[in-house]
Amino acid sequence: MTTPQDWEQRILAGIDETSHELLDLAGLLIRTPSENPDGDCTDVAAVIAGHLADAGLSNESHDAGDGRVSVVAHSGTVGEGERHLVLAGHHDVVPVGDVTRWSFPPFAGDVVDGWLRGRGASDMKAGLAGLIHVYVLLHRLGVPLRGRLSLTAVPDEETGGDRGADWLLARGVVDGATGAIIAEPSERAHPTIGQKGSSWFRLTIHGRPGHGSLQPLHGTSANLLAARAIVALQRLWELTPNAPEDVRPLIESSKRYAEEREGFGAGVGEIFERVSLNIGTVRGGTSTNVVADTCVVDCDSRVPIGLTREQVFDKVRAILAEEGIEADVEPLGFASEANWTGTDDPIVATLVGVLRELHDPEAEGVLQWASSDARTFRAHHIPVLQYGPADPHTIHGFDERAHVDDIVLAAKVYALTVVRYLGLTD
C-alpha cells in the first residue's frame, strides 16, 4: 500500500527530477511579453493553455476583452466534507521601463549563475510556473487527491483592473473554493496572509487663469493650491487605527519581520499602523506664462487594519476644508479594505507547516503593505495566502530576477500543501 508519506516523497523527488522543466516553463513565460499597460495577455495565456493541453489536461480560456485572457483548469470533484483548493497567479507584468538601464535583455528568461532573469521573474511568472508545474506533475504521477483542485492564471492585476481575478470570481468560476494559494512574491520563510487596504484617489483643483507676469496679484494658481493640499494631506499619517484584538499579534510580528528580515531598517514597521500617502502624479497648467486654472493630483493611499477607506476619504475632505481648498475628490484605481486570513485557517496552517518542515522551523505568515488579487478572493469569502519565489529588491525594478533554489522550494511547498490540504483517497 502506498502511504501519504510515500506519495510526498515521490512528489518531492519528481520536482527535483523535473526542475529543468519548471525553469524552462518559467523562462518561456518571461520571454512572452505581457506588460501592463497595455495589458494584452493573449500570447502568454495561449502559452499556458498550450502547456496544459500538451500535458493532457483540459482547460478553459476566458476572454474579458482587450486581451484580458484568463486560463482556468479543474480536476476532481468535491464530495461531502471535502475541500476545493485554488492555485492562482497573474501573468501580466509591469513595463520594463528604460531598456538601457538593464544589464541584460529584459525578456531574457534564462538562468545565469543560479538566477532566473527577466521581467516577471519575481512578480510573478516564476511562481506561476511553479503552480502550473505542480498541477501538471500531480496529474502525471497520478496522485489520488481528494476534493477539487483548480488552477487560475489571470491578467489585469498590476494596474488593479477588474478583468482578471475579479472578473472570474464574479462569474462563479471557482465557486465553492475553501482555500487558495497565490504565487505572489514573498520572503522565503514568510508567506503573506493579510494586506493593507487601498484607497487611491484623485484631487482636481480649480483656480482662476491670468497672465503669469502678474502673479500673485492676478489669477489664482491651481498649482499653488495643489502644493498646499499635498503638504496638508501628509496629516493623514496622524490617523489612528483600532485593529481587532485577535489580529494585533499578527501586526506586531509583521512589524518585527519588516525591520529585522526585510532589511528596511528600524521604524519601517510603523507603516502597518499608519495611513501612507504617495503623490503619484501632478498635472497642472497649460503654459509657463499662464496662471494654472486646473491641477490634477493622483494619490496612492494605503489603509491599515482598523481603519476604513471611507474614514480616510472623510479625513481628506476635512483637511482640505481646514485649509480652505476646494477640490473634487474621487476614488481612483485600486480600491479595497484591509483584509487578512487568520493564522489558524487550514490553508495558512497547512502551508506554514510545510514551510517549517522544508525550510525554516520559524516560518510564519505576515502582513504586506501592498495589494494584490488576494483582496478579491477574501471579498468572495475564500481564505487565501501568498507565497512565491522572489528577489524582493528587484521587483518592479531593473534586472528583475529570482533564485533557482527559491523557485524549486516554492514548487515543493505548493505540492505538499495541495496533498495535505486536500488529502488523499484510500
TrEMBL record:
> Which cofactor names does the annotation list?
Zn(2+); Co(2+)
Q: Does the keyword Glycosyltransferase apply?
A: no
Matching entries from Pfam families are given as: M20_dimer (PF07687), Peptidase_M20 (PF01546)
Query: From the Swiss-Prot or TrEMBL record, what is one GO molecular function term?
Result: metal ion binding
Q: What InterPro entries would the database entry show?
A: ArgE/DapE, ArgE/DapE_CS, Bact_exopeptidase_dim_dom, Peptidase_M20, Peptidase_M20_dimer, Peptidase_M20A
List, alphabetically, the SUPFAM superfamilies matched.
Answer: Bacterial exopeptidase dimerisation domain (SSF55031), Zn-dependent exopeptidases (SSF53187)
EC no. given is 3.5.1.18
Q: Which domain of life is it from?
A: Bacteria
Does the record carry Zinc as a key word? yes
What is the recorded name of this protein?
A: Probable succinyl-diaminopimelate desuccinylase
User: What is the native source organism of this protein?
Assistant: Tessaracoccus aquimaris
